[in-house]
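Allow me, if you will, to draw on your knowledge of protein folds for a short while. A protein sequence and the structure tokens that stand for its backbone fold form the material at issue. I would ask you to consider whether the tokens describe a fold that such a sequence might reasonably adopt. Thank you for your consideration; the sequence and its tokens are set out here:
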Amino acid sequence: MSQRTVFFISDGTGITAETFGNAILAQFELKARHVRLPFVDNVDKAHQAVRQINHTAELEGRKPIVFTTLANMQVLEVIKTSCQGMLLDMFGTFVAPLENELGLKSNHRVGRFSDASKSKEYDDRIEAINFSLAHDDGQSNRDLAGSDVILVGVSRSGKTPTSLYLAMQYGLKASNYPLIPEDFERRQLPPALVPHRKKIFGLTIAPERLAQIRNERRPNSKYASLVNCRDEIHEAEAMMRREGIRWLSTTTKSIEEIATTILQEIRPERLEY
């Protein structure tokens, strides 16, 4: 497998550069050493970054790959003219053609939130995260009507990380509610969820994978036994079918895939499509 050092340079957090860069690199059989250089927001820091890139090029005898999302043109010019890496400037690749097409100049804003203290979108996202934490694992039934999405499933099926991802990435108020043996005995949804059926999405998982996850937390317990996991999954899926709840298996899916499927199915009103 080919090996290469990859730099991600940004005058913000670098999350955009790394996310986009990794999506591209995933198309290749490549073992990459990641070097993250966030907050490169002045010329001095740009020269420091260049020295690091060029030193790596000399040591390895080949060009490092350099992904950038630099809004500061002076900083970008230092990187462009001096670094010995293969430069992939994502803003330059996409923003300049859009400026030409739209007849508008971009604001060259650094990061998603140029000033978090003045951003309603940022405030909404923090509120959504707090909401999701307060409504994690059925901790609170208060204001379930305020949820954009309510995730249900057995314990350890992926509800909590998916809820937090939806809150952090999309600013959605995501509640999650565990299905427990008492629900299966009643053969119906928990009463608190019934009025919000349209917002409910179910998560399931292969029993073998569930047993593996639970054994990491409570080894050799009935809770983690394969027999118990099979019973719970069987009952949960049967309930979802009876109640007409949309659901998917998280066994082989990433958080991003799960969240995307949920958004396509639930289509929260606050998101534009």
Observations:
- The two ends are 40 Å apart (CA to CA).
- The mean pLDDT is 88.
- The first helix runs from residue 15 to 25.
